[in-house]
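Collaborator request, handled under Task 6.
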Amino acid sequence: MLLAVFLVGTSQLQADNHAKPAVDNTVWDLTQIYATPADWDKARKEMLADMKMIQERKGRLGDSADTLYNTLQMLSDLTRKGSRVFVYTSLKADENLGDTEAQERLALSRAMFGQFSQATAWIQPEILTIGRERIEKFLEQDARLAPWKMTLDNSLRNAPYTLSEETEQALSYFAESSGAPSQIYSLIANSDIPWPEITLKNGDKVRIDSQGYSKYRASEDREVRKQVFDAYWSKWGEYQSTIGRTLNAHLQTQVAGSKARGYDSVLQRELFSDNLPTEVYKTLVSEVNKSLPTLHRYFKLRAKMLGIEQMHYYDIYPPLVSLDKTFDFETSNKITLEAMSVLGDDWVAKQSKAMSERWVHVHPQKGKRSGAYMQPGAYDVHPFLLLNHNDDYESLSTLAHEWGHAMHSLYAQETQPYETSDYSTFIAEIPSTSLELILQDYMTKNTDDIDEKIFYLGSSLEAMRGTFFRQTMFAEFELSIYEAVERGEALTGKKMSQMYGEILKRYHGHDEGVVVIDDLYANEWMFIPHFYYNMYVFQYATSKTAGTALYEKILKEGEAGVKNYKDLLRGGSSDYPYNLLLNAGVDLAKPEPYQSMVRKMNATMDEIEALLAKR
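Structure tokens returned to the collaborator:
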């Protein structure tokens, strides 16, 4: 329930120094959380004092249903209060990463949550000690416990994988060291690598770090694209052995931890946390592999549109067509509301009201955190959104994406008690993905310009490639390296590049002559930080799949499809995410949703080819 610590969306830590002067109606109003920093500090100190009371209840949870209720209610109240304390400082710090006072307050909030975690660490083990039979009797005896039914069931599910108190204590000593590989990788990737410079044809020298790579890999000049790829991946290649050892250390640690607790595999452990069947992961990978001819069709279409006889890996990123059109924030708001009318009057009314009440920090400014996210943790206030709106289509799409997250939180919080008003990562990206699809359809239908239609359809295709196929490619590689370690194989950086290269070439049709993959580019696995997040990336692909399936239901079923979609959002965490999606008519353990996704991609290419014929 410490949801406030996490952000929903896409965010990066680098500040954007190209500021646009902020105006009041495009800056969030944090006085809605606390009127002054002094009020925040008062709440923080109250939180520190109150959390001591919950420790006094240790050893008594099993005394009665009333005792259990009072303790869980105290836990909810403290979590709710602590989240609000954290959110205020987190949002304030992100306005200007160079504001030392704001950063100090954020550090105090983090320290407070650290103490809170320690003060409440005894609760789950004690629930397991009480046991399922007695807990279920308490639930029957006291209806006030109903909001915690899911929380209690989720805790009790862990019983088979919870060890003796002494063993748990011993394992806890390794908690900090188990995170070391991720920290080491982050230092190497973000601080230690001396990124190369290249000279462009116009004589400009540019640094090819992650930002330079992202920018110049989309250059219209093919020679520049190859130059960028070769410089970037050659530099990563110099660290192959070091990063290979680092990732292998992470894999070994995770496999050992899973074995110690009695899990069959790391995959089972990671999916167990959300009560997901492993078939979801395996069906995704299997169906995507069956659908590679569709991905190859896209690459051939891309080559044709770019005028390239033989596609290479460095030809993936330039846009199919350019769009000479701007979308300022006011226009983006208007378009988003018009596009979302398909979701009903109540949706538009909620979103319109929210847009007028200063929930959003809109424009880039000096020192501001870059990227975009939605922060739902101030439960008693409302969600807040951070954007860096640059008046382009990507910014418009990002706005729709983040409103998907915000509206998810609004519907869940209106419907659920606090205890089940959050939602799992497995569900979180579905509304945001579906809103992107709604926007893309709206934009395509509301222009008569052929090139503009192709631009929106091309953006949709690229999203499907990047989210459905590419993230599944990462997921397949991640599963393969975990399975190798579980078989007792030794993994080196060279071996991982070989394994990744084989998957990369298969996905891109290298052997069939679709896209040529130079061996150098097999180093790409090294720059993916998500491999230290443990079976995380597959959820991008499943979310895209589910979002597409739900939008198709809306188009086919009208109001019934809209109600079905909103019911999923209203569900919060009232059930396990797989069950919530099943109730919404989407079974991600079966092939059909993935096949539907592929049909959507083929239909989009059919549209583009028909438009090209009219040019």
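The cover message to the collaborator said: "Residues 1-6, 10-23 have pLDDT under 50 and may be disordered. The chain is about 60% helix and 5% strand. Please let us know whether this matches your experimental observations."
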